[in-house]
Amino acid sequence: MKVLSCRQHLYDGLAITASFICLIHCLALPLLIVLLPTLAAFLTVPEPFHVWALGVSVPISLLALSAGYRRHSGARPAFIVLPGLVLLTLGALIPSSEWMETALTVPGALLLAVGHGLNWHMLRHGTQKRKAVA
Asked: What's in the keyword line of the UniProt record (predicted)?
């Protein structure tokens, strides 16, 4: 059985963590702003935050997917993650209402988390299956 590289675990772990942070940000911050209007002035997020988050998410996701593909040769994680990245990109770069931004980024973050989770699963179980057959 081949031991997965620490780097691969780091890539997928960072990608999943970033997806969940984005999801929490997209769901919790608007809820807090609605429930606690007095805190709205203190909880504002800088306008370029979403572009910065996208700038972190895209390279980490692509690193994790390409490293995973080299090990398990499965394209399914990419078919889930790439539409998620498209949704995040649309939400971050296309000027729209806050509602539309949330409607694009929440499913995008979920797709990223699911796709990277699948990538991680395929790395752990796909590598073992291949070794057992060989």
From this structure: Membrane, Transmembrane, Transmembrane helix
Banded model confidence at residue 127, pLDDT cuts 50, 70, 90: low
With 0-12 / 13-18 / 19 or more C-beta atoms within 10 angstroms meaning exposed / middle / buried, residue 87 is: buried
Distance CA 75, CA 37 (A): 45
Is 54 within 8 Å of 92 (Cβ atoms)?
yes
In this prediction, residue 26 carries a pLDDT of 77
Question: Is 112 buried (19+), middle (13-18) or exposed (0-12) by CB count in 10 A?
Answer: buried
